[in-house]
C-alpha cells in the first residue's frame, strides 16, 4: 500500500446554531463547583456556627429565611441543584433510552418536574412566614415577639 492510495480523513461538519450539549457539559462543571461552595457554606452555618445542630429549629429556619441574603443563597442552591440534577438525568436518558418517542417523553417529564419543583421551592423560600399567627411564642424566632 502506498501513501497515495490512502484517502484523506473525513472532516467533521459543524452544524449551524448553538451546541446545546457543549453548554450542558460546561454548565455541569461550573454549577458543580458553585454547588460545592453553596452546600458546604449551608452546612457550616447550619451545623457548626453558634450552638451547632442543637440550635436548628423552626425559629432558626424562620430567622434565616427572613434574611434576604439567606433567601437568595438557598434559592440559588435550589435552582443550581435541580437544573444540575435534571441535566444529569437527561444525559442518562439520552445515553440509554434507544426509542426516540420514549426518550423524548422522558426528557420532557424531567424538564417539567424540575421546573415545577424549582417554582414550588422558590415560592416556599420567598413566601415563608417566620411568625405564623396563633403559634406558640416559645417556638418562634426572637424577633416575632416584637411584631
From TrEMBL:
It is found in: Membrane. Signal peptide: none annotated. CDD domains: SQR_TypeA_SdhD_like. Keywords: Heme, Iron, Membrane, Metal-binding, Transmembrane, Transmembrane helix. The keyword Repeat does not apply. GO terms for molecular function: metal ion binding. SUPFAM superfamilies: Fumarate reductase respiratory complex transmembrane subunits. The chain crosses the membrane at residues 24-49, 69-86, 106-128. Coiled coil: none annotated. The keyword DNA damage does not apply. GO terms for cellular component: membrane. Pfam families: Sdh_cyt (PF01127). This is Succinate dehydrogenase. The lineage of its organism: Bacteria, Bacillati, Actinomycetota, Actinomycetes, Micrococcales.
